[in-house]
Amino acid sequence: MPEQLELQQLVESGGRRLDVMEGERGGRGSTNVMASRCHPCPYLGLLLATLSSLFFSLCSVIVKWLVDVHPMELAACRFVGVLLPALPIVLWRKEPPFPQGRRIMLLLRSFVGTTGLMLSFYAFRHMPLADASVVVFSVPVFVAIFARLFLKEPCGLFNAVSVCLTLIGVVLITRPPLLFGHSIPALASSPDQEEQDSDVWGAVAAFSATLFGANAYVLLRALKGLHFSVIMTNFGSFALVQTLFVTWALGALCVPRCGFDRILVVALALFSFGGQILLTLALQLEQAGPVAIARSADIVFAFIWQVLFFQEVPNRYSIGGAILVTSSVVLTGLRKWALALPESSPLKKTLGVLAR
Predict the structure, then answer these.
(1) CB–CB of 209/119 below 8 Å?
(2) Element (H, E) at 297
(3) Which residue, 120, 135, 235, 248, is the most exposed by fewest CB within 10 angstroms?
(4) For residues 330 and 136, what is the distance between their CA atoms, to the nearest angstrom?
């Protein structure tokens, strides 16, 4: 998510609200009481997270569909959807938009997040939609590795197993020629199987986007205490400049040539805007663990759109890899949820080993 990462990736900024809430744990009880009073439906947060997955998955469809518009230019439109909801919140709260002492970290986080999303857009264009979505969506699993390296956070057996399962899933999806020899058809009914599978750069871009996205999450943890709107404003502003510059440097900066393409570009920005707002609201109403599980619907949507819009049927390797990656992401979300529960919670006892 990419949102993302990306959180899209995002997904890609969902963890921002969690980081703010974790920095305010002293007031968690009152926050939960207020949240319970604000919405009568106990599953509203999960519903909003699922809707955000739908919006972000439609963004991926548009990126793959608009073959005449460069992915980097589409990334610039995507970041308009990141910036627009953040600006009014910053102005309303009267937050310092570029606070002293955090500027280098904000710039670094913006660069890492922007590069990750640009790479994910390239992957969406040059890989089957579902395959690229699964690889990019595995970001939360790899966060543990970089959090251990840079923040010295604990990384136990559970994290090691999750990372191994995810790596196996990624290998099955990308099918590197070094391991599989000749390309194995990714699609059961596509006349251009060899041409699509031979594009190793798409797979490299997808995995690189995952690594950049994981580092973006680690930087978000280092920015605890800053309001999410400040981070998103800096991210959106920096990303717009970076993507427009890269698009100009590649000679791809242009206006879409026909009316329908222009409508889809506007829709990309609107879906990004809507997905970002829905994800932020979901994380205000629900803990990050359940939201991460609900966000796995992104993968389901990607498989549906791939078959529905592009008539590409994934084979057993893609499906097997998707199951492994999705299982790792869901288990990671369950563990995060379990660890956030109080010791006396019956649900924490039910989850058992995940809460250890």
Answers:
(1) yes
(2) helix 297-310
(3) 248
(4) 15
